[in-house]
Amino acid sequence: MAGVTGLSGRIALVTGAARGIGAAIAEALAREGVAVAAVDIDVDGLKEVVDRTGGAVVPFPVDVTDQQAFARVVDEVERDLGPLDIGVSAAGVLHPASVGATRAEDWARTFAVNSTGVFFVLREISRRMVQRGRGALVTVGSNAAGVPRTGMAAYAASKAAATMLTRCLGLELAGSGVRCNIVSPGSTDTAMQRALWTDGNGPERVIAGDPAQFRVGIPLRRIADPADVADAVVFLASDQARHITMQNLYVDGGATLCA
Ligand SMILES: NC(=O)c1ccc[n+]([C@@H]2O[C@H](COP(=O)([O-])OP(=O)(O)OC[C@H]3O[C@@H](n4cnc5c(N)ncnc54)[C@H](O)[C@@H]3O)[C@@H](O)[C@H]2O)c1
């Protein structure tokens, strides 16, 4: 992202970095001269990202729902790459279903990754940042956290939890020089989004909206690229955002009318 400063030579950890939005964030940070620890459960996907970035991204396979294993990975990252300046939580899962059809195990897994996993990441990294008096943390939430959607209750509730967790942490750490913000994407062209395009004309329908589902569509008339979300994360991690904390930046083409 042209024009931002304060990133070259920094160290970042990005979760969900094997594909989609997390991979775009890892690659965008690497282009700014950041050394990136890429965390994911998908070992093959991590390898592809590492191959594309030629060494600026280092793979650290781990499940963010395993707090001990994640803490060990953060130790390894700081030993191998250096003290973390930037932490980004992009790992997430979506099990679409109405509330009535949501299985308890899908509810639990959704919260384990999207809420508790974010808690483990924020807690583990922020502890270290506080001791050093600086750092930037960004949670990738969802615009579904702010507006009711059919067939997405568990996901939306889990993202709402992660969003408020991040804002509360931002308040707790504001005096310690650690900023905490959220980027809330709308429909973005990734595997997670494409899994929702089941009727053969997915993107057109998402853009046009659907009154039957109380969706107004996307005013900017396009599905986001993962790079659009990555640019917002890069900005929030940069010096240009040094006076921004506890904010929730929507990157959804206006789909939720900022409501
Ligand atoms: N694509 C969209 O339309 C959209 C919209 C709003 C929000 N989001 C959010 O953006 C983030 C990235 O989504 P995406 O579309 O790139 O999804 P994706 O499914 O393409 O990628 C998600 C990544 O997270 C990893 N992951 C899942 N569980 C994990 C775990 N327990 N530990 C470590 N890694 C794990 C997966 O292996 C995968 O690489 C998610 O938090 C998602 O909820 C996506």
What is shown here, in short?
The chain has helices at 20-31, 43-53, 67-80, 104-132, 153-173, 191-194, 202-208, 226-237; strands spanning 11-15, 35-40, 57-61, 86-89, 135-140, 178-185, 248-251.
How would you describe the overall organization of this protein?
The structure is a single chain. With 259 residues, this protein is α/β, with parallel strands linked by helices. The chain has a single domain (11-186, 224-250), classed as Rossmann fold (3-Layer(aba) Sandwich), CATH 3.40.50. The protein has helices at residues 20-31, 43-53, 67-80, 104-132, 153-173, 191-194, 202-208, 226-237, and strands at residues 11-15, 35-40, 57-61, 86-89, 135-140, 178-185, 248-251. Helix 1 (20-31) packs parallel to helix 2. It is globular and about 50 Å long. The model has no long low-confidence stretch (mean pLDDT 96). The structure holds nicotinamide-adenine-dinucleotide (NAD). Nicotinamide-adenine-dinucleotide is lined by residues 15-16, 18-22, 40-42, 45, 63-65, 90-93, 113, 117, 140, 142, 185, 187-188, 190-193. Nicotinamide-adenine-dinucleotide binds at residues 15-16, 18-22, 40-42, 45, 63-65, 90-93, 113, 117, 140, 142, 185, 187-188, 190-193.
Give short descriptive properties of this protein.
8 helices; 42% helix; Rossmann fold; alpha/beta; binds nicotinamide-adenine-dinucleotide; globular; 15% strand; seven-stranded parallel sheet; 259 residues; single chain
Do you know the CATH architecture?
3-Layer(aba) Sandwich
Radius of gyration: 17 Å
Q: Which structural class should the secondary elements be placed in?
A: alpha/beta
CATH topology (fold) name: Rossmann fold
Q: What share of the residues does DSSP label as strand, in percent?
A: 5-15%
Tally the structural domains: 1
Number of strands: 7
